């Protein structure tokens, strides 16, 4: 008996998901807070994703294809700003009266060196909540994303790509140790699952 041809939807469902450019050429590492990533506790607002360059052999030369040392700082999926119902009122790279990250990203040897706890920007939400985003890795501030100043919504819509916070370049001698204290994708997902389970059990 002849079978009916598969519909385009059914056929596409069998196809493996195509990895994004970020997932193909970079590795995600996470800095997790101490809470459930949803409530207003200050520790729960420290949920970041560090997207680091992955060493990928070239088809022709076997050389490095993506820069291993470069770290792109973004919000992790569990950060309160990315939770449903949150609306961003504004974003500022003005850390204090005398410190603006827009001015720190200068050229040459004078690029500002950041510690793990150095603030990168502040996010203001319509519900009155304010979140200070830290570097979470040591290195030189190479770039901040000025696009999120003009269109804050892309930070929520595309946090791992167009909505990134900043680009940090660790020192060469520290490039292999920058992931110490960070979580892998799998470890981060396990933490999130445990948080949800704990929240459900206590509710």
Short description:
It comes from Tursiops truncatus (Atlantic bottle-nosed dolphin). Keywords: Cell projection, Nucleus. With 203 residues, this protein is α+β, with helices and mostly antiparallel strands.
Written description of the protein model:
The chain has helices at residues 8-14, 21-25, 101-104, 147-150, 153-157, 185-202; strands at 26-31, 48-53, 71-75, 88-92, 94-96, 99-100, 113-114, 119-125, 130-134, 139-144, 166-169, 183-184. By secondary structure, it is of the alpha+beta class. Strands 7-10-11-3-2-1-12 form a seven-stranded antiparallel beta sheet. It has a three-stranded antiparallel beta sheet with strand order 4-8-9, with no helix packed on it. A hairpin with a 4-residue loop joins strand 8 and strand 9 (130-134). Mean pLDDT is 74; it is low at 7-14, 35-45 and 53-67.
Name the descriptors.
nucleus, globular, 12 strands, OB fold (Dihydrolipoamide Acetyltransferase, E2P), GCV_H/Fam206, 203 residues, alpha+beta
What is the strand arrangement across the widest sheet? 7-10-11-3-2-1-12
Could you give the order of the helices and strands? HHEEEEEEHEEEEHHEEH
Uncertain spans: 7-14, 35-45, 53-67
Average of per-residue pLDDT values: 74
C-alpha end-to-end distance: 54 Å
Rg over C-alpha atoms, rounded to the nearest angstrom = 19 Å
Percent in helix: 10-25%
Treating each run of at least 4 consecutive H or I residues as one helix, how many helices? Answer: 6
Organism: Tursiops truncatus (Atlantic bottle-nosed dolphin)
Protein name: Protein Abitram
Subunit structure: Interacts with F-actin. Interacts with G-actin.
Subcellular location: Cell projection, Dendrite; Cell projection, Growth cone; Cell projection, Lamellipodium; Nucleus speckle
